[in-house]
Design a protein that fits this description.
three-stranded antiparallel β-sheet; 6 strands; single chain; three-stranded mixed β-sheet
Length: about 120
């Protein structure tokens, strides 16, 4: 269940940026190669965030497809699974461009009393 590790790492990044302010929502880019099981992740995040600044925060996950670039011909291929053969030339010297991402894109924090007044 690597979802708990992903949730804990994400929470650490959220807490560093929130600086003690309550977090209402966050948006995360997750590559399909991370193989995050959404229900398990949601439960894991709720558990690790319980009682902290992100307790009850909504999490929007943006799924990032696999993209590889062929080092032989330069062709780019996008897919929902790992690509091992270039669609352009049939080569196998591929560079992974996206698909294993885990990026905290944004957080929404509650306004401080100074910001409200």
């Amino acid at each position: 269940m690597h979802e708990f590790g992903v949730a804990a790492a994400l929470l650490e990044a959220v807490e560093a940026r929130a600086r003690g302010r309550p977090v209402r929502a966050l948006r995360v880019q997750v590559g399909v190669l991370q193989r995050v099981d959404r229900p398990v992740f949601d439960q894991a995040f709720a558990l690790v965030a319980d009682g902290g600044v992100a307790d009850g925060a909504s999490v929007e996950i943006v799924e990032v497809p696999v993209e590889v670039r062929c080092r032989d011909c330069g062709a780019a291929t996008r897919a929902d699974e790992l690509v091992v053969t270039c669609d352009g030339c049939g080569g196998h010297d591929l560079e992974l461009v996206t698909g294993d991402d885990l990026v905290l894109e944004s957080i929404t924090v509650a306004p401080t009393p100074q910001e409200v007044g």
